């Protein structure tokens, strides 16, 4: 049996649980972008807007610049950017693009409006 000893692992484990107040799953999202390009900035804005609409108070969004942190890009097996990875809840999902097509993002992440 594996033990989680790091505090980061414990924090990630907490995200897997349902929210105590709403009983809904919390989402862990990682967005990989390429610097401060217009496409990267638009992707971040589009994704934040969608998360606030569909996941208000139930999401964690980490934005990773693959130019500044190439090791994280390699670890995440990122071959195109912008790429969004939904780590939790399972199943893991990957979406590539600027996230301007809201329907595609909603379907891709299996989101439902409250």
3D architecture notes:
The protein has 114 residues and is an alpha+beta fold. It has a single domain (25-109), classed as Glutaredoxin. It has helices at 7-15, 38-54, 70-75, 102-109, and strands at residues 27-33, 59-65, 83-88, 93-96. It has a 4-stranded mixed β-sheet. Helix 2 links the parallel strand 1 and strand 2 (59-65). The model is unreliable at 1-17 (pLDDT under 50).
Summarize the structure.
35% of the residues lie in helices and 21% in strands. It is an alpha+beta fold and 114 residues long. Residues 1-17 have low confidence and may be disordered.
Brief descriptors of the model:
about 110 residues, Glutaredoxin, alpha+beta, single chain, four-stranded mixed sheet
CATH topology: Glutaredoxin
Biggest sheet details: 4 strands, mixed
Distance between the termini: 38 Å
CATH superfamily: Glutaredoxin
DSSP helical segment count: 4
Q: Would you tell me the overall average pLDDT?
A: 81
Low-pLDDT ranges: 1-17
Helical content class: 25-40%
Strand content: 15-25%
Output the strand order for the largest sheet.
2-1-3-4
Q: Structural class, from secondary structure content? A: alpha+beta
**Number of DSSP-assigned strands:** 4
CATH architecture level-2 label = 3-Layer(aba) Sandwich
**Which overall shape is indicated by the principal axes computed on the Cα atoms?**
globular
The CATH C-level name is Alpha Beta
Topology at a glance:
Elements: H1 7-15, E1 27-33, H2 38-54, E2 59-65, H3 70-75, E3 83-88, E4 93-96, H4 102-109
Parallel strand pairs: 1-2
Antiparallel strand pairs: 1-3, 3-4
């Amino acid at each position: 049996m594996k033990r989680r000893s790091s505090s980061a692992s414990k924090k990630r484990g907490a995200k897997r649980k349902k929210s105590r107040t709403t009983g809904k799953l919390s989402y862990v999202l990682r967005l990989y972008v390429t610097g401060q390009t217009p496409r990267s900035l638009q992707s971040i804005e589009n994704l934040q807007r969608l998360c606030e609409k569909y996941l208000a108070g139930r999401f964690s969004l980490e934005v990773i610049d693959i130019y500044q942190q190439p090791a994280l890009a390699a670890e995440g097996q990122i071959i195109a950017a912008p790429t969004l990875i939904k780590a939790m809840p399972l199943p893991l999902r990957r979406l590539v693009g600027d996230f301007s097509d809201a329907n595609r993002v909603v379907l891709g992440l299996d989101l439902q409006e409250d």
